[in-house]
Amino acid sequence: MALMRITSPHAHGPLSTAMVMRTVLLATLPGIVALVHFFGFGVVVNILWACLVAVGCEALVLKLRKRPLGFYLNDASALVTATLLGIALPPYAPWWLIAVGVSFAIIIGKHLYGGMGYNPFNPAMLGYVVLLISFPLEMTTWGAPLGINQVGAPGLLTALQACFMPASVDIATMATPLDLLKQNDSLLIANLWTQQPVFGRWAGLGWEWVNIGFLAGGAWLLYKRIFTWHAPVTMLASLTLLAAIFYDSGSSASGGSPAFHLLSGGTMFAAFFIITDPVSSAVSNRGKLIYGAAIGALIYIIRVWGNYPDAVAFAVLLMNFVAPFIDHYTQPRTYGHSKGGGRSS
Fold it and tell me: Which residues are recorded with the post-translational modification FMN phosphoryl threonine (predicted)?
């Protein structure tokens, strides 16, 4: 009898891969709305162009591999990868930067290893890191959080021009709050908050609501049982714990408060949309606890003592590499056997 060869991720009940992917896309909407509200329509252009490139790359590779296009394109996994990478990239990024990142994520990060279910690394984060290492200037140039309703804020036409004709427009940019805190070596936190308009109440202006938006989307995914709570909760808990331990109440050498780290950069985005990838993460519940806690610790360590202010992508890829090792030592006990490996009486 021939056995079915089925690879991860596995789903039980009425959920299919396509349904899971579309649910994840819907859950990103609160965070995307917040991003657009504060950073403008460049976010929308990023995502739409990334999706177009992703579908094109996916179709090309499937054609070369002689796989049915309709079946594999319908699972929406390429759209999820493109949307996550489009969210992570700076608004008003040039078209070629988005195309390079998405192409690498789909062709190398996904299909080089065999396609959906075989990739050992998160494709979106792989594409992001390649861009961050190769084009650091473009990857660290974020639009100012003016808000789409403010005078002088770029409109949709300007966003399109910035993407496809970047030399024709001049977009106001500034460093992110994580960048500013990383570079600060003379001002107290209270003075830094007063002198830099990019800071909000607890974290960065706009970033607080962006993270709350992704938290809301992630909570909905938990409610829909798309993934379990283990990895997101332990990631946020370990990040909070380290930030609380090393917080010195706001000196010039401070690494930031727990609230700052939870509501800055891609923290909530990573916790609910990146580390929960069922293919590249740990599988067992105990493994997910370790996996999430280690990512939270790495994010804090790299943010505060490393060279990259927002360390989500590096932390995730490092733990993707370790995930099989974690799974090996956290396998659940086989039914009918004791913890030592022998049969129970």
Answer: 176
